[in-house]
Amino acid sequence: MKWITREKPKIDRIACPWLIKRFIDPGAEFIYVPFNEVKEKAHKLDAIPFDIPGVEFTHYDDECTFDYFIKKYKLADPAIHSMALVVRGADTDRHDIAPQASGLWAISAGLAYNTGNDQQLLEKGMMLYDALYSWTKYLQNEKHTQTPSENLLVDVLKKYISQKKKGKKIPGWARELKEIIQDHIDTSLSLKETSKVLNVHPAYLSREFSKYFDNLSFGEYIRKLRIEKAMEYLQSSSYSLTEIAYLTGFSDQSHFTRIFKKHTGENPSAYKKKHSKK
Fold first, then answer.
1. Quick check: pTM over 0.85?
2. How far is CA 271 from CA 231, 249, 267, 275, in A?
3. 3-state secondary structure at position 104
C-alpha cells in the first residue's frame, strides 16, 4: 500500500509509518508532499492519506493518528500501547501523559532540524521508534545505575560524603554530586508504586493528581507533606535537626535545611526557636 501525508514530519508522521511497516504492512511506501497537495496526490497515486484533517486516519478527540492506527488494526501488544502514551504526549504537547514524551519531542525536533530530506528523516526515525519499542517492551523497569559496580559506587558515595570527618574538608564536586543523588532518592513514595496499589495507570494518576491535591504534582505534594510534618516536629518535639531530617524522609540535615528554607523562607533552627512550644 501507498500512504501519503504532509511534508516535514516530526512525531505522528514518523511514528505512524513505523507502526505500519513493523505491524501492519511491511512493504508500505510513504510519500511526503506539501499540505495542500495531499488529497489531490492521494487520488492520483492511489495512496491513503493520513495525519491531516478530514480523512479517516487522523486525530480524534484528544488522541493522535498513532492511536487511531492501533484501534483500527486492533493491535494488542502492550508495548505498543505504552508507546502510544509517549507518542500522544509528544505530538499533542501534553508531556504530563508520559515522562518520556518530552524526550521524544526533543529528539524528534532535533532530527527534523538536522535532516532536510523527509525520506532520510523517516529512515532515521525508524531506528528511533525501534529503540522506543524495545524500551517499552523489555526495559521499562531498568535503571541507568543498575550494575553491581554502579550501585556500589552510589552506596559508597552516599556513605562517604555523609560522614563529616573531623578536619577533612569535603570538596565542592562531592557536595554537588551528593545533592544530585539526594534529589533522586529523597521521595520514598513513588508515583509508580502508588499507581500499582490504586490499580490506576501512572500516566492518568500523574495527569489528574493536581486537580485534587492543591494544584501540586505528586512529587511536590509529597514534599509539602514532609515539610509540614517537619514543622510539627520542630514545634513540639525535642528531636535534633538530624533526627527530624531522618524522620521526614530526607537523607541528611543539610539537604533537609535547604529544602525547608526553600519552602518556608527560614532555616529549621530559626523556625524551631521562633515556634517551639514552651
1. no
2. 8, 19, 6, 6
3. helix
Residue 59 grid coordinates: 486525530
DSSP 63: B
Distances (CA, A) of 154 to 80, 150, 168, 175: 34, 6, 21, 14
**Displacement of CA 258 from its chain's centroid (Å):** 25
Per-residue pLDDT at 17: 98
Please list, residue by residue across 73-85, b when 16 or more beta carbons sit within 10 angstroms of its beta carbon and e when fewer do. eeeeeebbebbbb
Nearest-Å Rg of the Cα atoms of the chain is 25
CA distance 64 to 53: 11
Query: Using one digit for the tens of pLDDT, what is the confidence trace for 101-132?
Result: 999 999 999 999 999 999 999 999 999 999 99
Please name which of 34, 6, 32, 30 lies closest in space to residue 19, comparing C-alpha atoms.
30
